[in-house]
Amino acid sequence: MSETPVKDHVVVQHLDVHPYGRTNSITGPPIDLYENGYVDPVYQAKAHILNRSIQDIGMGKYQWGLFVVAGFGWFADSAWPSMSGLILTPVVNEFQFNGPFLSLASNIGLFFGGLIWGLGCDIWGRRWSFNLTLLIAGLFGVVAGASSNFASLAILMSFVGIGVGGNMPVDAAVFLDFVPGSHQYLLTILSIWWCLGQLLASLIAWPLIADYSCSSSTGCDRSDNMGWRYLLFVLGGLTLFLWGIRFFVFTLLESPRFLSGIGKDTEAVDVIRKLAEYNGKPCPLTVEELEAPGKIHGREVLGSPGRRRVLSEGSGFAIDHIRALFATPKMAWSTSLLIVVWGVIGLASTLYNNFLPYILTTRGVTFGDGSLYVTYRNQVILSMVGIPAALFAGWAVESFRMTLLNDLWRNKGLTGTFLFASTTSRTSNELLGWNCGYALFSNIMYGVLYAISSEIFPAVHRGTGNCLTSTAKGVFGVMAPVIALYANLSTAAPVYVAGSLLLFAGFVVLLLPYEPRGKVSI
Fold first, then answer.
1. How would you class 207 by CB atoms within 10 Å of its CB: exposed for 0-12, middle for 13-18, buried for 19 or more?
2. What is the pTM of this model?
3. Counting beta carbons within 10 angstroms of the beta carbon of residue 460, is it exposed (0 to 12), middle (13 to 18) or buried (19 or more)?
4. Mean pLDDT computed over 92-102
5. CA 58 to chain centre
6. Contact predicate 336/469, CB 8 Å
7. Residue 296: left (phi > 0), alpha (psi -120 to 50), or beta?
8. Which partner from 235, 342, 428, 467 sits 20 to 30 angstroms from 454, CA to CA?
C-alpha cells in the first residue's frame, strides 16, 4: 500500500486492487459505467471511494438482510397492482360498474406514488420513503376491504397505489447504495420477490374468490360475495407485517452517497463505519479520504455554508435532480429512452396483466371451462412460472457473455411473440400454455429492465431517475384502462396492442448508449 500527499496534507490511499472493486473473472475489471465522462468529477471521485470501501467490506449480513427487506417492496409492487385484476370479476358482479374504472383508480395512485416517493428520496433521504411506503399500502389495503360501494373502493385503492408506487423507485436505489459492485447482479435477482408477490396473491385469491363469490351479477349482495374482501384483509395485514419487520427489526442506514451528496461527508463515513461493524469488518474509509476530491478541485466541504452543493447543485430541489439527468446529450438520450421504454411497457403490461383473469374467464367460457376455480388455478400456474424466471435472469446476466441490452431485447421480443401466439388458442389449455411462455419471458424482462434502469442513473439522482421512469409507467398505465373502456375484452384486441408495444420497446432498448454489464454504478 502506498500513500500520496495531496492538497492541505490530506492523504489518499492507493490500494493494490482496482479502485472500483475487485476484478471479476467473468466481467473483468469492474469499471465505472460513465468511465471518465461524468459531468461532476468530484461526485465521480467520491463515488469511486465509496464503491471501493463497500467492496472492501464485502457482501455481508447487512446486505443480505437488505436483500430481504428491499424485496418486500418488489413483493408489494407485484401483489397490489394485480389486485385490480384478481378482484375485478366479483367486484363488478356486486357493484355493477364498468370494470376498467377500478384499474384506472389504482393506476392513478401508482402514478402519484412513484412521483412523490421517487423525487422525495433524493431530497429528504431514503429512510423516510423506505419506511413509509409499505405502511400506507397496508393500512389503506385493509380499509379497502370494508368498502360498501365502488366509489369508496376506488378511492381507497388509489391510496394503496400511492404507497405501493414508491417501492420500486426507492428500494432499488437503497439496495444499489449498499451492495458491492461485484454483487450488483443481485438487483436482477431481487425480481424473485416480485414473482413471489404475484404467486402469493394468486394463491390467496384462488380459494377465497372461488369459494366466497357470487357466480353472476344476478342477486349478488355483500354476504354472498365476501371473497374479495377477505383477500384485501389478508394482503393488507401481510403488508403491515412486512412493514413491521422493516421498521422494528431491520435498521436501515441512510445512503452514504446521499449524505455525501449533500456535503455530509462525516456522516457518510459514519454510515460506512456502521456497515463495516455490522458485517464484522474494519472500517476502510476516513473522512479525510472522502473529502480529498473536493479539496483537490477547490470545492467547499463539510462545515462550510455551501456544503449542500458539493455533489449536486440545489440538492433540496427536485428540478435540479431532473436537470442533472439531462446534463449531457448522451445522458439526455439515455434518460429519454428509458422513459419511453417504461411508458410503453406500462401501457402494455397494465392493459394485459390487469385484465388477464377477466380475459381467462371470458375466453374460458367460450371454451366451456370458465369457472372461477379454473381461472384462479390458471393464475397460480402463471405466477409459479415467474420464480425460476427471476433466478434464470440473474444467472444469465453473470454467466453468459451477452450484454444486458441484448438480453433485454431478446426477452422483450419473446414476450411479445408469446402474446401474439396466445390469440391462436382454440382450447383453454392452449391459452394457458402460451400465457406461461409470456409469464416466463416477461419476468426475465422485468428483472433485467429494473436493474438496467437503476444502474444507469447516478446514485445522487437515482431516486429521481427511477421516479421519471415510474411516472412514465404510471401515466401510460392510466391510459390502459381508458383504452380498455373502448375495447372489447372478450376479443384478442388487448393482446394485439400489448404484443405490438412490447416488440416496439424491444427495439428501443437497443438504442440505449450505456451498457451496465461488467461496470459499477456510481
1. middle
2. 0.80
3. buried
4. 85
5. 24
6. no
7. alpha
8. 235
